[in-house]
Specification:
CATH architecture: Roll
Number of helices: 7
Strand order of the largest sheet: 1-2-5
Distance between the termini: 17 Å
Helix content: 25-40%
Radius of gyration: 18 Å
Number of strands: 7
Shape: globular
CATH superfamily: CBS-domain
Order of helices and strands: HHEEHEEHHEHEEH
């Protein structure tokens, strides 16, 4: 059975948490990649995707509220609103990235990688060994491998 290490890209394009947003966006566009792992001191701390950057163009939706006994009660999650506001106003990768991303190990079976990508709606999966980034998998890597197997 094929595993992540069989198809992963080992020359990973990554960004640092303190990279500014315009530089990170340029990198994703120039390299024609959907996302990049965020690495600090050799450790994976997050992932920055095109979706994270597009979120900055979003308008913030305030949660509906109602008043009860002279108090204001939000009907939505204030934590979610705070996370969205942080992404919308991000100046650096640290504020726009998704922290603690879903990862796989080099030994993860290809079928499991595909299932994670579909179930979690992910386009990019970092491959981590002992906390260190060792590779990256994109949907195109998985699709290319599955198509080659069928031919």
């Amino acid at each position: 059975m094929r595993t992540a290490k069989d198809i992963m890209t080992t020359e990973v394009v990554s960004v640092a948490p303190d990279t500014d947003i315009p530089a990170a966006a340029r990198l994703l566009i120039e390299k024609k990649i959907n996302g990049a792992p965020v690495v600090e001191n050799g450790r994976l701390v997050g992932i920055l995707t095109q979706s994270d950057l597009i979120t900055q163009q979003k308008t913030l939706k305030l949660p509906s509220i109602f008043t009860f006994l002279d108090g204001i009660v939000p009907l939505g999650s204030l934590d979610r609103m705070e996370r969205e506001m942080k992404k919308i106003t991000a100046m650096t990768v640290r504020d726009a990235m998704t922290p603690d991303p879903v990862t796989v190990t080099p030994e993860t079976l290809l079928e499991e990688v595909a299932a994670i990508m579909v179930d979690e709606r992910l386009h990019t999966l970092p491959v981590v060994s002992e906390g260190r980034l060792v590779g990256i998998l994109g949907k195109s890597d998985v699709l290319r491998t599955l198509m080659a197997a069928k031919e």
